[in-house]
Amino acid sequence: MNINTERLLNRTVTVINRLDAEHYELEYDAYKATVYSPAMWSERVQRSVTSDGQAVTAKSYTVQIPVDAVPAENGTQAIAGIGDFVVLGHVVVPAGSSRTDVLKQLSGLPAF
C-alpha cells in the first residue's frame, strides 16, 4: 500500500509546551512553542443521544508529526503532555509567556 505523504502531511501544527516552574526554577509556569511542518491534523465530530433524549456532540482530533521532524533532544519522549497545547497552524508565542498570555494568543484558534 502506497501512502501519499505529501497529501496526508499537508498541515502546520504548533505545540506549546508548559515549562514547570519548579523543574525550571521559574517564578511561574512558562510556555515555549515549537512549530512542526509537515504534519497531519484531522478532526471528527461525534454525535450521540443520552438516555433522557438530550443530544450531545464532541470533537476529537488526531495529530501526526513525522519522527524526522521532531528534534533529536526529545529522544523518545512525547512532544505534548498534560498542560500543553496543540494548535493547528503556525502560532508565535514568545518564550516564557504565562498561561494567561498563551490563552489570549490562542483565543478563537482550533486547539486541544
Could you walk me through the main structural features you see in this protein, from its secondary elements to its overall organization?
Helices cover 14% and strands 38% of the residues. With 112 residues, the chain is mainly beta. The protein is globular, with a radius of gyration of 17 Å.
Shape: globular
What does the average pLDDT come to? 83
- Sheet-strand content, in percent, reads 35-45%
Number of helices: 3
Describe the largest sheet: 4 strands, antiparallel
SSE pattern: HEHEEEH
Which tags fit this structure?
single chain, 112 residues, mainly beta, 4-stranded antiparallel beta sheet, 3 helices, 4 strands
Condensed summary:
The chain is built from three helices and four strands. It has helices at residues 5-8, 21-24, 99-106; strands at residues 11-19, 30-49, 55-64, 85-88.
